[in-house]
Amino acid sequence: MNMITNHLPTAELQKLDAAHHMHPFTDSTGLASKGARVITRGQGIWLTDSEGHRILDGMAGLWCVNIGYGRKELAQVAAKQMEELSYYNTFFQTTHVPAIALAAKLAELAPGDLNHVFFAGSGSEANDTNIRLVRRYWQVKGKPEKRVIIGRWNGYHGSTMGGGSLGGMKPIHSHGGMIDGVAHIGQPYWWAEGGEMSEDDFGLMRARELEAKIEELGVDNVAAFIGEPIQGAGGVIVPPKTYWPEIQRICDKYGILLIADEVITGFGRTGNWFGSQTFGIKPHIMTIAKGLSSGYAPIGGSIVCDDVAAVVAEGGEFFHGYTYSGHPVAAAVALENLRIIQEEGVVEHVRDVAHPYLAERWHALADHPLVGETKLVGLMGSLILTPDKARRAKFAGEEGEVGFRCRERCFANDLIMRAVGERMIIAPPLVITPAEIDILVERAKKSLDECHAGLKADGLMVAKKD
Ligand SMILES: *Cc1c(COP(=O)(O)O)cnc(C)c1O
C-alpha cells in the first residue's frame, strides 16, 4: 500500500507547504516566515503535531469533529463502502443505499415536516443550493420576482460566491464581490452594539430590522431570510432571547421562507439535535454539514420541508446538483457518525453532563480582569476581552490585536481556542469529559493571565475613547 508517511523534518514540510499549498483564510506572508503548524494525529479531543506537542482541540477542528478524532468504526465503514460501491451518482433517476438510508435518517431526526434532503459536499454548497431552491420555489408558485434573500451583517454561510454573499462579512465581499439579490440587516450582538438598551429590547429591535427591510424591498421581491441560530464564525454571538421569536413572527406574517443555517448548531452542539429546537425556530430549510459526518468525510446538505419539496417537484426537473451529491462513502460515514451520536447518547451527554460542568467553570472566567461577558450554549462558548468591563469598552489599539495575542498564548499552552476580533471562542468535541473540561479551562485561564500580564507590561490595557 502506498501510504503517505511523514519522513521529513518539520522545517522541510513547512517549506514545501509554503511553496506549493495555497491555504484558505491564511495570511501567506506570515505562513512563509513562521511556517504552518503540522498536525499529524488525532485521538478523542487531542491532536498531536509534528513536534510531538499534545494539543487540546477546543474548536473540534472547524466546529465539526463532534464525536472526537480517531473512531475506528468510521474508518471501517468507509473502507467497506469503497469496496462495495465506491461511487455512483444520484442524477437522472438513479440512487444507492447509503444516500437513501442517510436521507431517511435525517428526515427522522429533523423536527417538524423537514422530511427531504438535497445533498451537497459542504455547507457552502448547501447554501448555494438553498439560493436556487427558494428562488425556484417562488418561480413555480408564479412569483418569479420574489428573489431577494435577507441575511445578517457578520453572519457566515460559507465562502463560495453564493454562501459568501448570504453571509455578511465585508472582508469576504471585498474579495470578488457579491451576487445580486441579497440584502443584509444588523446582527443581534448586544455587547458591542446594544448601547444603553436592555438585551431584550435590543433583540427585538434587531429582529424588527427584518420587517423594515421587507417593507423597504417590497414583500413581492423577498424570497427568504437566512440566519444561524447562533452566529459561529462571527464570534459565537448568542442572540437575546427575544430575537428568534420575533424573527419567526415576521417570517410568518410576510409568508417568506426561513432558512436556519445549522452547519455548526446541528448534531448536538447546542444540547439538542438542532439549534432550531434550542431556540424554538421553525425553519422551512435547514443547512447542514460539519457535525453531519463529524468531519470524517466532506458532506453537507439542505433538509427541506414538505411544502418546499412538493412545490419544487411540481415544477418538474430542478436543474441543479453536484457530482458528489449523496456520495456513497461520505453518506455511509455520516450514517455511522449519527449512529454513534444516537446510540452513545452524545446529545444527552452535552445537555446533562458536559454543558452544566463547563458552564460553571466557563462563567467563572467572567471574574478575570481581562474578561467581559461569557456565553455558553451547549458546547459553543465565547468570552470577550475588554480593558473595562463596566463600560463594555474596546481596546485603544487596532481591533483584533488583543485577541491575536491571547490566541498566541493559547497556542503556546497547547490549547486551540480561536479569536474573532477580541472574542475568544470554543466549540470542543461533544464527547469531552469533565476531567478534560478541567484541563481546557485551566489552560484558558493560564493563557488569559499571561495575555493580561503582557498587555499590562506593554501598556495596552487602555480603553478606546468613545
Ligand atoms: C462552516 C459554515 C458554513 C460553510 O461550510 P463549508 O463546509 O466550510 O463550506 C456555512 N454555514 C455556517 C454556519 C458555517 O459555520
Describe it for me?
This protein has 466 residues and is of the alpha/beta class. The chain folds into two domains: 38-67 and 345-457, Alpha-Beta Complex (Aspartate Aminotransferase, domain 1), CATH 3.90.1150; 73-343, Type I PLP-dependent aspartate aminotransferase-like (Major domain) (Aspartate Aminotransferase, domain 2), CATH 3.40.640. The protein contains 17 helices and 15 strands. The protein has helices spanning 10-20, 28-34, 60-63, 72-84, 97-109, 123-140, 161-166, 170-173, 190-193, 199-217, 243-254, 275-279, 306-314, 328-343, 346-364, 401-412, 434-457, and strands at 39-43, 46-49, 54-57, 114-120, 148-152, 182-185, 222-227, 257-261, 285-288, 300-305, 371-377, 380-385, 415-416, 418-420, 423-426. The strands form three sheets. The protein has a seven-stranded mixed β-sheet, with helices on both faces. It has a four-stranded mixed β-sheet with strand order 1-2-3-13. Strands 11-12-15-14 form a four-stranded antiparallel β-sheet, covered by helices on one side. A hairpin with a 2-residue loop joins strand 14 and strand 15 (423-426). The termini are far apart. The mean pLDDT is 97. Bound molecules: pyridoxal-5'-phosphate (PLP). Residues 122-124, 127, 156-158, 163, 228, 232-233, 261, 263-264, 289-290, 300 line the site of pyridoxal-5'-phosphate.
